[in-house]
Amino acid sequence: MFLEQLEGEAVQAQKTESNPDQQYQLFKSLRVQLEMRTKQLEEALHSTQKDGILTVDQALVKQAWERVCDTLLDWHLQLDTSLPAPLDMVGVWLHKVEGALRQDVILQQPHDVTASTLHRALEQQKDALKNLESHQQDFRRIHKDRSVDGVAVSPDQLQDMAERMNFVSTSSSIHLARMEFLENKHHMESFLTLAESKLRSWIIKYGRQETIEVMLRNYNSIVEKQRFFENYEALFQSLKQSAEAYVSADSSGKKARNIQ
To answer: Percent of the chain scored above 90 by pLDDT?
Structure first.
């Protein structure tokens, strides 16, 4: 099977004694082979069942694909950390940021749980990106010299890092804007779900005096004491602003990609 063969070649190649440039060329060759099969693999994993569940064979292919991706990712990190300082730290940072940007958030949860999960992921990604400018400066200098303190760096590996740095710098603002929009969207949906539930409990035609009094106290607690309409307006404004920021970031990102 192709994936098993590729995984074996990747493991064996890492054990091969060679200089950094040769190691990177081996890595690049195997990564290109995998990328050329990506569309074929995606089609093979397309579920034909109504419930969307993969067959046993498809699940095995998916596991093999994930193993190869993990093997190549670990090898890539190893190659980047083997670079002379401070380029090695730029490489470590790139992998950290790329991992944060790849992070999947499960949206099929209660809205309040999803909003909290998105908020934690967003803060982690902001933390990972806070050193973007300083790493960009270091990398630009090294990329211009094509070496670190006289130590030559593989041109292909340097170009790979340049492309990844460019992708992170142009896509991170869009990604963060999207995450913030989704967080506010799920906050609003959680609020509206609660409001709908309360509204249904308040809409009654008649009842005993004690029941009506309890309902009125509950209504006053939610609407007056907990400032229902003020909270709605605050959530709405946050959602509106984050939506506008997301649209703006996406438009700017598309323009930047077209220029490049």
So the answer is: 54
